[in-house]
Amino acid sequence: MAERRTFAIISHPDAGKTTLTEKLLLTGGAIHLAGEVKARGQARRARSDWMKIEQQRGISVTSSVMTFERDGITFNLLDTPGHEDFSEDTYRTLTAVDSAIMVIDAAKGIEPQTRKLFEVCRLRSVPIITFVNKVDREGREPFELMDEVADMLALDVCPMTWPVGMGGRFEGILDLASGSVARPEGPSKEFLGKIDTDATIPEEFAEQVELAQIGYPEFDVDAYRAGDLTPVFFGSALKNFGVTDVIEAIATHAPPPRPQPSEAGPVEPTKDEVSGFIFKVQANMDPQHRDRIAFMRLVSGTFKRGMKLTPSGLGKPIAVHSPIMFFAQDREIADTAEPGDIIGIPNHGTLRVGDSLSEKNDIRFTGLPNFAPEILRRVKLADPTKTKQLRKALDDLSEEGVIQVFYPEIGSQWVIGVVGQLQLDVLISRLAAEYKVDASLEPAPFATARWVKGDEKKIDEFAGFNRANMAKDRDDDPVFLAKSPWDVGYQQEKNPDLTFSTTKER
């Protein structure tokens, strides 16, 4: 357990997250050649991006897991969607990690999506290591970038490495602790392993380095693990500069598996009983087999293949015969797993996002909610005879958390809810590619949805007066479909005994 590091990489699109993922795998020995994780025939697509729409658009829209070992440490790297529309899936992925690497483009600094994802990490006090990428290109001054991180994110910053020049004047990366410089070599100026231990820094940069060392707080591992301080590394993922420093920092400073919140209080990783939670469900990772994999973060106990665990949503135990460890799309059967590990459980719709699994069915993990959709649409079939296939597809995709499906009390047209526009594109793309269903979307007469909570009798009375606006979700829970945010406020005022909630825990 002490040798486990479960972490994610967060960034704005195009900051270099996919390239850094590849170089971390290369540094960790999980692959042997840069470019090996590129999908066949798809130049510059990393192996972690496997869905068709991802390859077309060059963005990650699902979360993959990659496990690799280096110097006795097992790293579980969770690749998160970087697109701004995927906050919900990304949020759930970040509930499963113990630390994160925040990638910032040296020319752009902190962008909106970076900040949004950072705030999600802050909710759970996830420790952050900052990697300022692309320093071999023209960018902003290192001090300006450091101060922006400190001011915008209200974090103490501590430089661990420093760029000797940037852009056309880039001469290497200085390790502030050892004083050694990793220098570029070769025709493409990549880092090929030359480290100058007796480095002399050009005078114009020496003053910068001195200021960097005295101007910021020293590294404090406790402050970092509490989420109050971020160590900052500079480098270029593409040219392989500074990547080793980052993986070594994760190994040395990042926390091993942390306690996870539950209804009965934090569950310690040292607890004997095996427990975990499902933070993601992914269908059709292998389209040949129409498979369905639930990703479980193991929280406590030593899991052994064939064990029986009870999902909170099911109530009866299931035997986990074929647990999977992942390297992107490649997978192998796991005989054992420790707290912090992510295992895939093949199933046929029995496991859903937010389910807790345990040996005695006495643990309910918290903090994995559904979010109220911000966009509502109706699905229109090109071929009405495909209704059954559409229902199956929508059930599958709602189990994955890609969409939410609402069944109105009046009328037969199902309403689809999503957090971001891109999810609608993913829906149409996957309906066609995986389910052979040709469909389009049309506007729904609703702007937002809220889960109605409170006394059952009061809910029934409210539903009786608002039948045209009432629906059920896939768990048969009552949902109020509002025509505008004003409508929600008005109903809340009229019905003070009821709660119109923007989230719903499983």
Automatic annotation (TrEMBL):
Fetch the Gene3D superfamilies from UniProt.
P-loop containing nucleotide triphosphate hydrolases (3.40.50.300), Peptide chain release factor 3, domain III (3.30.70.3280), Translation factors (2.40.30.10)
Swiss-Prot/TrEMBL keywords:
Cytoplasm, GTP-binding, Nucleotide-binding, Protein biosynthesis
Entry keyword annotation includes Ribosomal protein? no
Main location group: cytoplasm
The cross-references to Pfam families, in alphabetical order and at most eight, read: EF-G_D2, GTP_EFTU, RF3_C
- Listed GO MF terms: GTP binding; GTPase activity; guanosine tetraphosphate binding; translation release factor activity, codon nonspecific; translation release factor activity, codon specific
Q: Which GO terms describe its biological process?
A: regulation of translational termination
Q: Which family does it belong to?
A: Belongs to the TRAFAC class translation factor GTPase superfamily. Classic translation factor GTPase family. PrfC subfamily.
Q: Which NCBIfam families match?
A: prfC, PRK00741.1, small_GTP
PANTHER family annotated for this entry?
A: PEPTIDE CHAIN RELEASE FACTOR RF3 (PTHR43556:SF2)
Its job? Increases the formation of ribosomal termination complexes and stimulates activities of RF-1 and RF-2. It binds guanine nucleotides and has strong preference for UGA stop codons. It may interact directly with the ribosome. The stimulation of RF-1 and RF-2 is significantly reduced by GTP and GDP, but not by GMP.
**Protein name as catalogued:** Peptide chain release factor 3
